[in-house]
């Protein structure tokens, strides 16, 4: 696949983003989203409003192959820590799209003055994501045991991952 271009989400992107969100949610392997998420629910969950941001990753042909959303992890006194979520289209996994989106999110958080980034619920069986985030400097600071009902692995833990910016 090579490199991908990352840019802010535009309204015309929604059908392609929805296809990714719907597919990842339906698999029920990596997100605590309902597997039968409606399009309206998906849009409400995925499209961020300022100070948050939703972005897309496009391949060389211009096809949307991934998306990410980022913003403050908590309001008020917790708003100095960012969070982000990432989804990559099934056919684009393993080609660096997630890494490119992760690096974009880290740069975004740093530019906006966040002190850290925290992921609240990384499914422990999602080994490619855990390895990627660790490679990008995140640490597992805790695991909530059996907090995720995986369709084939049963009850598995959710990692909380953190990195200073």
What is the structure about, briefly put?
The protein has 165 residues and is of the alpha+beta class. The protein has helices spanning 14-27, 39-46, 97-111, 127-135; strands at residues 5-8, 53-58, 64-72, 81-88, 116-123, 139-150, 154-164.
Model description:
- This protein has 165 residues and is an alpha+beta fold.
- 28% of the residues lie in helices and 35% in strands.
- It has 4 helices and 7 strands; from the N terminus they run E-H-H-E-E-E-H-E-H-E-E.
- The chain has a 7-stranded mixed beta sheet with strand order 1-2-3-4-5-7-6.
- A hairpin with a 3-residue loop joins strand 6 (139-150) and strand 7.
- Helix 1 packs across helix 2.
- It is globular.
- The model has no long low-confidence stretch (mean pLDDT 96).
Q: Order of helices and strands, N to C? A: EHHEEEHEHEE
Coarse shape: globular
Secondary-structure-based class equals alpha+beta
Task: Give the low-pLDDT segments.
Answer: none
Averaging pLDDT over every residue, what do you get? 96
- The separation of the N and C termini measures 29 Å
Strand content: 35-45%
Order of neighbouring strands in the sheet with most strands = 1-2-3-4-5-7-6
- Major sheet size, sense and barrel closure: 7 strands, mixed
What's the helical proportion of residues?
25-40%
Number of helical segments?
4
